[in-house]
Amino acid sequence: MKKTLLLLLLFTGISAFSQNDTIKNWKFDGKASINFSQSYFSNWAAGGENSLAAIGKYTMNANYKKNKHGWDNWLDLALGYNIIGSNDPMKTDDKIELVSVYGYELKKSLYLSMLLTFKSQFAKGYDYAKDSTNYISGFMAPGYIDVGPGIKYKPNDIFLLNISPATARWVVVNDQKLADAGAFGLEPATMDTLGNIISHAKQVKTEFGAKLLMAISYEIVKNVNAGTKLELFSDYLSNPQNIDVNWQVLIEMKVNSWLNVNISTELLYDDDVIIIDENDNPLGPRTQFKQMLMVGVGFNF
């Protein structure tokens, strides 16, 4: 927990010098916020439980443009916990996401590109409705790394479209227990009839396919910004007709210079990720959805 907080402070500090400015063909823009809610009850006849929830978020854009060279970078970090009564803290949000797209301009708005994306999380995750003692995810468990050449279309600062027809993807599960269980699409460990492991599972799965990345960001009205990012991936090597989907939407409403309201959604689908019910029965792949409404203090760097 302490390590993850230190990481958040480190990235916040890195952006502090940028001052939303342009330095030698680079333009930096960073935002840090803390969103929280709290309730307290004492001799409350109607009943209730004390609670405290906090989510720290950090985003940074670092974009380079000189002559025919353009390089767009986004870093998105989030970590949040909720404490209810005397229960242990429960994680409510956890995200590490880096997107980097380099482009060499072929003609106006059209670039030959190279795409890199990285996704993971800071801390271990649990299915609290089922079991709060056995983790089901962790740092680099999973981790997703995509690399591939392609074509980028960027007519302005609002819209970006990148298509990479030859993208290598590595799915990393850097935890042997989760890898042996076949988590996140890995082949599980080989076991005998008594359930003893004969050979451990590999912790990395390699995929190769096509990837589409689309990002839109604009101001709807004054102090209200909307952004969306869509990623689609098809694995040529296994069921290419099944498309992996990651669709994120964020609406930011600025009340004043420091108070903001954010509404975010994220929709995921990956046919390699099998959802398990409370009785450990596999349900198969499912559409995953997350929605958050946050009110908090935010600062631009």
Task: List the SSEs and their pairings.
Blueprint: H1 2-16, E1 22-23, E2 26-39, E3 51-66, E4 69-84, E5 90-107, E6 110-120, E7 143-153, E8 159-172, H2 176-180, E9 190-191, E10 197-199, E11 204-221, E12 224-235, E13 244-254, E14 259-269, E15 275-276, E16 282-284, E17 288-300
Antiparallel strand pairs: 1-2, 2-3, 2-17, 3-4, 4-5, 5-6, 6-7, 7-8, 8-11, 9-10, 11-12, 12-13, 13-14, 14-17, 15-16
Q: For the residues shown, what is the average pLDDT?
A: 88
Number of distinct helices: 2
Briefly note the structural class of the backbone. mainly beta
Largest beta sheet: what is the strand line-up?
A: 2-3-4-5-6-7-8-11-12-13-14-17
Q: Key terms for this structure?
A:
Outer membrane phospholipase (ompla), Chain C; 12-stranded antiparallel barrel; 17 strands; 59% strand; 2 helices; 301 residues; mainly beta; 7% helix; disordered N terminus; two-stranded antiparallel ribbon
